[in-house]
Amino acid sequence: AAVAIPTTAASAAPGARDAAIAQARANVTRNAGVFGFGSGQDLVLKDVVLDADGTSHVRFDRTFQGLPVVGGDLVVHQDARGRLKDSTRAAAHDAAVRSTVPKVPAQHGAADALSAAPGIKDAVSTPELVVWAADGTPRLAWRTTVEGTGEHGQPAGKIVVTDATTGEQIEALDAEHQASGTGNSEYTGTITLDTTPVSGGYTLTDPVRGHVTKDAGNLSASSLKASSGTAFTSATNVWGDGKKFSSNRATAAVDAHANTAWTYDYYKNVHGRSGIKNDGKGATVFVHVGTNWDNAQWSDTCFCMMTGDGNGSTDPEQVDLDTMGHEMTHGVTSATANLRYSGESGGLNESTSDIFGTMVEWYANNPVDTGDYLFSDQSTPPWLRRFDKPSLDGRSADCWSSSVGKLDVHYSSGVGNHWFYLASEGSGTKTINGVTYTSPTCNNSTVAGIGNQKVAKIWYRALTVYMTSTTTYKGARAASLNAARDLYGSGSAEYNAVAAAWSAVSVN
User: Fold this and answer.
1) pLDDT for 211-229, tens place per residue?
2) Structural domain tally of the chain?
3) 186 catalytic, yes or no?
4) Are 355 and 502 in a shared domain?
5) Among the options 186, 317, 327, 494, which is catalytic?
6) What global pTM score does this model have?
7) 224 and 272 inside one domain
């Protein structure tokens, strides 16, 4: 039987969302004391989440006499019959103020906002009258947004809140929930980075996903711990110079920081996994590890991602998309099946990292580093390994044999990589994103692919549900068929494609 997919707002029964909203409004009115909902207030719908069991969670912002209430938002939690189960609300309980007529004119708030946003060129200030109750005590205030450009032409903004009765500044914050920095990367062009404002500038700490990117100062990987290194900071929130073998130490950090975020987002949005250990915690990411260290690695002990500077001549910094995704996937494997790093299980461990590292690249859909089946083609040109015919590197195995387990795990991984390509794209010659692949089969069969997204979902379930520390290639076939059965049904096209691809690499 196929696995039931949890119901979302988009796929719920027609009318369920509207019914939940209407019930929530009624529940707030009936329980006005609980929500602090009184005369002059109104509810502004913000979001609705519908669970598979019919439970609903309806989120509202509030207004008072038409003014937005800052800190007045609330969530109504209801059971499948629309009955109030629980409530969540921000700091404000009572949103009422004595008067909505300001004693301090808008121009005062605008001037205060402009003075609080130095360094923003061509600044334009837009004041808005609000009820500010983020500390629980409602008061009339001017919320002024300053927008303009920063020193390097990047968008810059500030939000300044001033008391509309006394003129006192209440708070000043960046115009976004987290700062958006501009990264000039080595491998993916000019990109946006999630950073954190600190005194005097910004730091490469991702407030959404929790990871922090640091300069290892060329310490060796063996001597690093999470507290090692130096945080990257910038006064302008513009990072790196976009050059390979760069003397600007923040350039490698741009790629490492962004690609860690892409890896986190891939696992979260595609597989529902929140971080390496599925506990929502972010890692410490180090760049400039060692001296001419042409490698990258994941450390479970440190809970750190470590990247080297390349060999100084042909291989630049090891911070490209699929390399970062590969190494962080070792952490996911360790937290799940924990495939032993020797024999066939070791080959499967490496193949799993190649597969999901490649899928991070496809997920990112970056126009500079497009999705392909060439592993580490950016940092180890023209590529380190390839999926369609792994033996083209001169060492990797295309097909399973009884001696595969005696190979180095980076070469026995070829069997799993070849299976993934055949299951995804099929056999024969094919051009994808400008790259031509020619994939043979070991049994002279013709295989039709089902697309890498389906195969990756099957492989993730196989890894996290059915594989163990000693799984062999034969065991991986059984695990992935169990996963395909769970997701798509026994005898489905997906199930049959997985089986055919394994047979095509001599795993029966």
Assistant:
1) 999 999 999 998 999 999 9
2) 4
3) no
4) yes
5) 327
6) 0.68
7) yes
